[in-house]
């Protein structure tokens, strides 16, 4: 287990990672589903929190949906994610504030949970685009935000339109850094961007009201390039 001492003074109990406990305390205020189930909480410090239970993706998920091979605490996914979140937050990148993480070992396997602060007023980009189009300046800002992560060497493992949040002021944030890594600059940046593009295209193909056009992607690429050119 690991936690943010600025938000939790003492080691939390394992109930912090149990949605049933939060429900019994009447502090579970909502939930969402995805590869990692997300539970929205009234946090112990009075701020909104999110509890995410890590799940496997792909074909293995049918046989083993949430167990991972134990190879040591330093490599446990939830603990690694919390460390990376703490570093990114300290560097001023737009990510959730880390709260706590648990890697619950049982023999050769473990289950994994992460708690972060919920970003106020923010919604998944995919949901927003189902309701309205965003101006070119917003797409430029999104490109710039992604570029800041890439300049810092952050390779998001699942950069998609649901892991990008946009708030009411059109500020962008990235979430779900499970399996993300800090790596050296390199050719990985373009495939990472391409993953986001495929996600947007998939939503566009499946949802008639989805507001995404080629000009939007061009604006995103422009904002991305501008950050690299400016050095800021």
Automatic annotation (TrEMBL):
Subcellular compartments: Cell inner membrane
Active site: 158
Enzyme Commission number(s): 2.7.1.166
SUPFAM superfamilies according to UniProt: Protein kinase-like (PK-like)
Protein kinase domain: residues covered: 23-232
Highest taxon listed in the record's lineage: Bacteria
Pathway linked to the protein: Bacterial outer membrane biogenesis; LPS core biosynthesis
InterPro entries, sorted: KDO_kinase (IPR022826), Kinase-like_dom_sf (IPR011009), Prot_kinase_dom (IPR000719)
Enzyme class label: transferase
Major subcellular site: membrane
Pfam family, one: Kdo
Catalyzed reaction equations: an alpha-Kdo-(2->6)-lipid IVA + ATP = a 4-O-phospho-alpha-Kdo-(2->6)-lipid IVA + ADP + H(+)
GO molecular function terms attached to this record: kinase activity
Primary role: Catalyzes the ATP-dependent phosphorylation of the 3-deoxy-D-manno-octulosonic acid (Kdo) residue in Kdo-lipid IV(A) at the 4-OH position.
NCBIfam families registered for this protein in UniProt: PRK01723.1
Similarity field: Belongs to the protein kinase superfamily. KdkA/RfaP family.
Record protein name field: 3-deoxy-D-manno-octulosonic acid kinase
Organism: Salinisphaera aquimarina
